[in-house]
Amino acid sequence: MYQEPIFLKSVFKERIWGGTALKEKFGYHIPSDETGECWGISAHQNGPCEILNGALKGKTLDQVWDSHRELFANEEGEEFPLLVKILDANNDLSVQVHPDDHYAREVEGEQYGKTECWYIIDCEEGAELIYGHHAKSKEEFEQMVADGRWDDLLRKVQVQPGDFVYVPSGTIHAIGKGIMILETQQSSDTTYRVYDYDRPDAEGNTRELHIEKSIEVSTIPHQDASFEVVEDVREGLRSKKLIQENYFTVYHWTLDGDVTEKNENNYLLMSVLDGEGELLVCDQTYSFKKGDHFIVPATMTDYKLRGKAAFITSHSTK
């Protein structure tokens, strides 16, 4: 039985809105000064992560999903269900929306739509997200888009570090300048741009918009999603369940000391936001530090965490 954590090599994505904060805050070796995304836990075809340790070293996460499903509690599905990213919004991201599973399969031929959630790691004072819109009907939405009345249409929300935002498929949204988030999402890269500030890319071209598809998949009128944060303390670990919904369950963990964890027939995705420590299992010790991403497989039934650190952890919701 496989009894070790699975550490992953991050994949970095350059974006027109990216910057250098992934290097400055996490010490990552980024490809350029316009690096927007760190895919920390990914089996997606556009950026699968390589395994860094153990018997599976050198394989990619999608390969292991296909060949060692026991590590993932024999979960069904052709593709690994989740993707975990850290995003550095050095500038405003485009205003966008994602389809649900049905639309993604019927129109794009993709297995998953994209429901996601954001934990605000850091942000500038007064930083804002776009979350939702003010249109009361599809006709009003279409007219406001056609007229370019973006300030009237788009709903802005101020955020601060530690905030959590749930973004179901169909939600108009955009991450604003000066915000760094950890995003937990369905494993999808399907995005429909509604508005991109008419800005040019490196070649002087504006990026493609997807107005018709955006209108088709958007929730109109906007609906705020409701969720309840549940807090639990066990030994040296304070756990906040941020959300439990159809696709994922996400927690914020604060470790200060030791805790013994029992894995309840599931696998756990772990991203270290701050600090450092050790994971102990079967007389073996594995060190972790800020910026590491790893998976506790379903076969690792008992383990201990020791140190002083903060994590975002998640698993698929069956």
Automatic annotation (TrEMBL):
* Protein name (record): Mannose-6-phosphate isomerase
Task: Name the catalytic site residues.
Answer: 193
| Family, as annotated | Belongs to the mannose-6-phosphate isomerase type 1 family.
Boundaries of each Phosphomannose isomerase type I catalytic domain copy?
Answer: 7-106
* InterPro entries, per database record: Carb_Metab_Reg_Kinase/Isom, Man6P_Isoase-1, Man6P_isomerase_Firm_short, MPI_cupin_dom, PMI_typeI_cat, RmlC-like_jellyroll, RmlC_Cupin_sf
Listed EC numbers? 5.3.1.8
Organism in which the protein naturally occurs? Bacillus taeanensis
Q: Where is the Mannose-6-phosphate isomerase cupin domain?
A: 240-315
Keyword Secreted listed? no
- Could you tell me what reaction this enzyme catalyses? D-mannose 6-phosphate = D-fructose 6-phosphate
Identify which top EC class this enzyme belongs to: isomerase
Record GO terms (molecular function): mannose-6-phosphate isomerase activity; zinc ion binding
